[in-house]
Each structure stands twice: as C-alpha cells, then as structure tokens.
Write a structure and sequence with these properties.
2 domains
Length: 194
Amino acid sequence: MINLKNLPNQQRGEVTKLFLRRHWLIVAEILGYLLTLVVIPFISMKFLTFAEIDPLSDIFWGPVTYLLFSVYLLFVLVIIITQFTDYYLDTWIVTTERIINIEQRGLFTRTISELHLNQIQDVTAERKGILSMFLNFGQVYIQTAGAKERFNFKQIHNPEGVKQVITGLINDDKRRHGDASGQSSDQNHSETTL
C-alpha cells in the first residue's frame, strides 16, 4: 500500500488532499454476487431432492458431486478475491501538485499514472440514475489538452465535491506557478505499469 506521507516522486511542499476509492456500494455488489453464487448449488440440490434424485447417496456420484461442489466454491472464491482486490487497490490520490491514478487489473497487473495539475483542461462530475443520486456517487472525468480523456474516477463518493477540490487545486497551482509552465506535456506526464 502507498504511504500517503511519502509518495513516489514527491515534490517539496506537496501535500495529499484526497485519497479516493470507489463507493462502498461496490463492496455490497461484490457480496451480493458472492451470496448468489454460493446459493446456486444448494438450490440445485433442492430441485434434485424434489425430483427424488439424491446424487449424494450414490456410491459414485456422491464423491463426484462433493468434488464438483468444492471446485465450484474454489472458483467462486477466486472470482470474489479478484473483484475485491480490484476494488481495494483501485485508488486515486489528489495532491497539491498532481493526480495519481492507481488501476489494478486482475491480480497481477497494476498501472500507475500521474497527471500534473497544470495539464488539466477540464474537470467534469457526473451522476446517472436514481441510486447514484440518492447515495451521491458517480464519475469524475479529467480532460487534458489531448483528444483522449486521461483519467476517470469511477463510482466515487461525492463527485461534485471532488470536482470542486480539484478545480480549486488547479487554480491554486496556476497562481503559484503561473499559467505558462514552458514544459512539454511529455515532461509532465508519466505512466508506469507494474
């Protein structure tokens, strides 16, 4: 895990303002999937019992059924661990100088990108749907001078508040460093895949 007091490539005077993860509803969604996937074999066994078929009492099908059930539960466990790891390790860190995007893809791929505040052209907050309106979560899009959006804060809590903080930091950065930095965008942007 990243130490917020000692970020990689931290500049003098750089202070962490926001540390973001996706909304807690995503964890509830993962647990809902887990519950559904675990209940499916038990419901299947109930249907077989209603049809007066009992594979567990058969000398051959009993052990095979237990083996298949164990393999299925192991498969479900791997899926859930992968989903939770993706949730937990997907983070966004906003500092007084830059935005750091840590994107976990599966169990063994992580992409860490950073974007300096002076490169940001537009910040957009978006909430879609009834649930996101009531629970106050949505997306924040960070647009750079290029044609492609560079950062997307997915399913975060209070996207309008995050947008306001980032916009305030951009304005503070412009006052500190001036509007013309004189550096190319290649010097201000870096991306690392681990």
